[in-house]
């Protein structure tokens, strides 16, 4: 069959419109959105905010009409010049690199949620990745996205009459989406091949422009591949574990090859979750092949330039492949790396010697990266605990998994109404500089009346949206006219509105607020103080427990007493999320602590001046300050889960009855809930400046990207001279380390010493064949807890004072303790090298006992 594409015949005057359509900058630019709405508001909605699709559907008459609409053309000119100014501005973010060079960061993710026009995400992980791209673009961080483009994306949800979730998988029409197939110099599609099992799979690439950031999405659905291989990129998180390993081979290995084929040489690779961790091996392989490095050299280089972000607080959430599957798909690859199968498997095992242990992608990612983090303060702690088995020589607090708390890209999530209000009262910088806490302090100056009216307008919009969705949904199902009439009357645009929407994973406990329907009835149906709940979310197709939860909620919502009060919106996506977070008064989140790594939807509500009612888990554990929302419980964890549900659902009812509802309905003479509005402002002031992706991306830049880039240059230049020196040094350490010992250690303080007095320490070490420059001797001290363990440790470096004989040296120094109580002190020795990332020296540590 001959294939060809038909493209719309856009008049030359509208070329700028086309250009704006193909750059996802329009997603977070209010004027660009207004421009598209102006063309045809209904069509804009029905095209899922996809301007490329919309342009293709406009009649020639309509296109010509636009050209002759002077007002439209002037507005287009303005938006286009804003757009050009944005994409051509190359120097917004000021970063300082030790070596003054350009560098790039490749950001790998299995899902990207940029907008509802590109259904290539399932939930928070993808939306976070999308927001990471947008903030990188705004900040001019030199980032490049790499992902998979799924033919069917994630499923669409609809419910049977009794509330059971059904899935449909509409095909994504790539040629009508805001992206372009990447071509070679000769005009043919760029193709990269990846061996999957015993076949070569050919990958094509779609390029998306997200402001100044490019994203490359890999796609195996083309005629060069067998039917089976065409399906590798069919669905996000679909299929069995074998399907998953194939997808991860394409993402990790294929992704690195695509960058290579494009001539892009990133300095730093960022793995957003473990799915893409095979990329580390592919980089090793290429370094061996192209630069003649040894496996050890190549891996050391890759480690120093890889950042890994883990998102999963439970072991079961991590991809683990049975060893047989690794053998099946990697036998040739393993020999190309010059490894034995057991050596290869050991990189994915906590215990390298346990032949039964599966191959875990998170373990691989941790072992092959020098920079790792969880996504909230609490999740950092949970992750260090989860993976401490990988670092047997150190205390859990020192496990090198840090945290960088997630954020949201605020301009993408707030309503146009609020954006206008913020521009007026916070100043126009709020959109460019949302992580400037000073700007958000001005929220306190917004007049109550204006903030409240704007918010009420959004609540009304939300109610109208829900009704429209319900009607549409009922019509599709062939419902009776009387039912459709009823749907038009659900909810009350003035009632206190609670939102709950997210993936229906069991730990998120969507059922919690429905646990006692009679008590809920009293709360919702108080005629003076009405309350209503809007709920949405998808369960993974294989998650029967999640589907059961949806069904139960839907059945409760069907009861006559709740019919107008509780609405389940089908097919949760970014668009539904946007309406919800922009219109609700209260955003409910009640995960089972500590299973929510971060959560971001509450931040979106918060940026829209909605208040959070949440368990102290993930980000809320960090954000809640006693007056910017409400906490369910105070951070407890339970063994008896039934009991926990009982206690925490009661806590929700209590808070609603005693605090939240009264606050909302306490109105002044002007009918405004001044105290509630005060909380809205405190919420804006204390949350938005920090919980946004500008702050997050800058954190990644400062803590990881810049360091990785420095390693890239210092280890890589002059034919990898620095790397070779580092490895030679590391070999010297490896040969001598088993002979290195702490011979004696002395604490020169009293058994009872005064606070803040320097206390002396002296340590004698045998360095075997090493020199004092190769190591550090450290005093490691902290409070002794009831179990005799050190907590809140501090580290003080001791200085080399004298050489005692050929290999023995004395080190000494002082420690100062800033608190009172019982303390413990230990000494240790570890190798150091300017070029060795600290996290990689922790596996060597020797203690004095
Ligand atoms: C923000 C968002 C999420 C994340 O929700 P959390 O429960 O806060 O993790 C999931 N899905 C969509 C569509 C979102 O927009």
UniProtKB/TrEMBL annotation:
Keywords: Allosteric enzyme, Glycosyltransferase, Pyridoxal phosphate, Transferase. It comes from the Bacteria. It catalyses: [(1->4)-alpha-D-glucosyl](n) + phosphate = [(1->4)-alpha-D-glucosyl](n-1) + alpha-D-glucose 1-phosphate. The modification N6-(pyridoxal phosphate)lysine is found at residue 604. Its EC number is 2.4.1.1. One of its GO terms (biological process) is carbohydrate metabolic process. Residues 10-117 form the DUF3417 domain. Belongs to the glycogen phosphorylase family. This is Starch phosphorylase. It comes from Thermotomaculum hydrothermale. The gene is glgP.
